Amino acid sequence: MQLSSPVDVLTFIAGVRDCAELVAGLAHFCTPAGLTALESLAASTVGRVLAARQLCLAALEASLSPANCFTIYRFAEAVCIAPLCQASERLCLSCMPKGEPEAAAEMDEQGFTELRPEQLQHLLQSEGLQVSSEMEVFRAISAWVGARPQERAPVMGELVRACMRLGAMDLRQLEALDQEPQVVASSDVTRVVAQAYVMRIMGCVPAGPRMRPSVARAMAKEARIGEAAGAGVGMVGVAEAQPEEYEEMAWEGEGL
């Protein structure tokens, strides 16, 4: 038998019972023409596999939704598929849990709670995160920790410190955060929040990232609603006229 065509090669391989027989058979039967056929078959197979891979990735990207974005994000990062990872990350940034039952029914809760700590931190630190306040960031952290409280409670303080822009919160917001049950129950989280509160009272300027663009937009929207209702509060007029000034007010840096 001469292995001189892809069909011959496939026929031979189909009848092989183990690797030793395959190696011996190829060494005995393959002619130069047979080796050329093997190269042709390999190239053809690789091309088909790559084409199938692209189709699968396109299908996954087209299927992205709030109901599966975290699961697909975890998969894409695990197998290092950058385009799919970037597409799913963009959707994840607008689908964080907010503690609203109606929204929870539509989100990928299992995929979110299975995020690794570094994945959660990466998402929550992003400038592209779509939240209306830092309290929504805290609710996302609480939801993730609450899925496995015994395992994850020890890292909650570090996540709050690293992911929440405490320096961009005012006294009223910090007081509300300090009263959250998850803060009260954790001495580590209490220390992080108390430090931000004391620094705000003292008028210190801690090193911290500026206000998130999405939070600035939410404050500007609230300002417009307040003025329309004739009930502007504090710096509402400034927020409406120049919402970017809210970002100017926020402290810059790496972390609190």
From TrEMBL:
Pfam families membership: BACK (PF07707)
InterPro entries, per the entry: BACK (IPR011705)
Organism domain of life: Eukaryota
Domain BACK: 69-178
TM annotation in the entry: none
Protein name: BACK domain-containing protein
